[in-house]
């Protein structure tokens, strides 16, 4: 079995912390570097339910996409849910590691997995390349095997992504033919202008706000929009990250067991009809 230090070293060779944004918080959150790692749980969010899943399965390490302490902290007292989470992990010898914006821009990274999940084929190129390496960057642009109507592509995307209460929202002519597609895992309305400049037929991302999206679709000639749940657009990356880690360790003759959490940690749990609220 590898040590936690061995495992973190492999993860950071795949998702270099230097690629993370300056405001981000990536890397090892808690755990003894000398501890042995047999089981690793991959999840989008470091939440109480994910920690409970890890403890119940007997995991030694949780790898999440989202940080627990993005803005830092001066206390891990069990007076907050984050403090209680840290206490749960330490008491049960479960380490926590985060790969966030460094995984977003990796090659392959979060958006590569999203692109494959919604049916894009062929080579994928960054929507917004990284200055240091044009193969890395935010988002991906790819093509469909054959053109589809926007309606049918939205159906394909819904089938390829895990279900959430909000589902998918679509803006544009549903009969429009689409072939060239841009995707970006997580919040993507900062890339609306970049997607337009890329000349794609549709841009699939998450967390599109009303005003930017409304103004965007009013301008003629731009891409259609598909807005999915933030969690759903990043979840496909987990299996890819698990595969890359196990392959890297296997090359050294090391075997670990991995599991992708299927627990939906999207904040929204249900859709209520107006009649039910009267």
UniProtKB/TrEMBL annotation:
The keyword Nucleotide-binding does not apply. Homohexamer. Pfam families: DUF34_NIF3. The lineage of its organism: Bacteria, Bacillati, Actinomycetota, Actinomycetes, Streptosporangiales. GO terms for cellular component: cytoplasm. A divalent metal cation binds at residues 65-66, 104, 230, 234. PANTHER family: GTP CYCLOHYDROLASE 1 TYPE 2 HOMOLOG, NGG1 INTERACTING FACTOR 3. Coiled coil: none annotated. It comes from Streptosporangium saharense. One of its GO terms (molecular function) is metal ion binding. Keywords: Metal-binding. This is GTP cyclohydrolase 1 type 2 homolog.
């Amino acid at each position: 079995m590898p040590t936690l230090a061995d495992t973190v070293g492999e993860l950071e060779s795949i998702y270099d912390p230097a690629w993370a944004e300056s405001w981000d918080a990536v890397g090892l959150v808690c755990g003894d570097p000398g501890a042995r790692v047999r089981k690793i749980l991959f999840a989008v969010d470091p939440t109480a339910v994910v920690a409970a899943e890890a403890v119940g399965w007997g995991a030694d390490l949780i790898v999440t996409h989202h940080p627990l302490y993005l803005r830092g902290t001066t206390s891990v007292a069990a007076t907050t849910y984050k403090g209680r989470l840290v206490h749960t992990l330490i008491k049960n010898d479960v380490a926590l590691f985060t790969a966030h914006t460094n995984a977003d821009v990796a090659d392959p990274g979060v958006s590569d997995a999203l692109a494959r999940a919604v049916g894009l084929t062929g080579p994928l190129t960054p929507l917004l390349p990284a200055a240091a390496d044009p193969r890395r960057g935010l988002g991906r642009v790819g093509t469909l095997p054959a053109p589809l109507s926007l309606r049918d592509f939205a159906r394909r995307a819904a089938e390829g992504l895990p279900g959430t209460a909000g589902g998918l929202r679509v803006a544009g002519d549903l009969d429009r033919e689409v072939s060239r597609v841009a995707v970006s895992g997580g919040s993507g309305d900062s890339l609306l202008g970049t997607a337009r400049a890329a000349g794609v037929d549709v841009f699939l991302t998450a967390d599109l706000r009303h005003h930017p999206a409304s103004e965007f679709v009013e301008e003629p000639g731009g891409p259609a929009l598909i807005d999915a749940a933030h969690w759903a657009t990043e979840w496909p990356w987990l299996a890819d990250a698990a595969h890359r880690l196990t392959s890297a360790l296997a090359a050294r003759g090391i075997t670990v067991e991995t599991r992708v959490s299927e627990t939906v940690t999207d904040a929204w749990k249900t859709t209520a009809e107006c009649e039910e609220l009267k």
